[in-house]
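Sample entry as discussed:
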Amino acid sequence: MPRLFTLSMFLVFILALSVSVCCVSEVSPDSNDQYPGQGGDDMTSKVVKTDEEWRQILTPEQYEVTRRKGTEPPFTGKFYDFHEQGIYRCVCCGNDLFSSEAKFDSGTGWPSFWAPISDQSIETAIDTSYGMVRTEVMCQRCDAHLGHMFEDGPAPTGLRYCINSIALDFIETENEHE
């Protein structure tokens, strides 16, 4: 009898585990979506992909910057001298990152912003690469490397989010607050 009970409990455990794995909400690609990892309107879910999946979705240049923490050359990106009104989104997952209202010309050759669109749209971490200590800026949703943050920006924050153009998409708006 004890052996039958143990076997029954094991089967119940396996069944429960199978059901929980099947029911976990996962962000999956949608072939009709501009951002293959977006998974509908839920912009709070983490987007997790394998290295190979990112390589299939992104251009080699986007992959190098966003997944391998590269940097595009200054004054070469499409948004460094760009002045349209709208929202800058993560090229990997479509997460809203920065507003054109917070963009300024830092003279560095990269798009610069004095604040993200929301404190929840980005994450930061200490970056000690190349013998420097900097603050890395990443997309909160998919962990894409975006650029770096410095404490030499304009008021009201005194911060400069120096972001790679290639890590961004732009959505033009007439009025961002609509």
In short: The two ends are 67 Å apart (CA to CA). The beta strands are 86-90, 96-99, 103-104, 112-113, 122-127, 134-139, 145-150, 160-163, 168-172. Helices lie at 2-23, 51-57, 60-66.
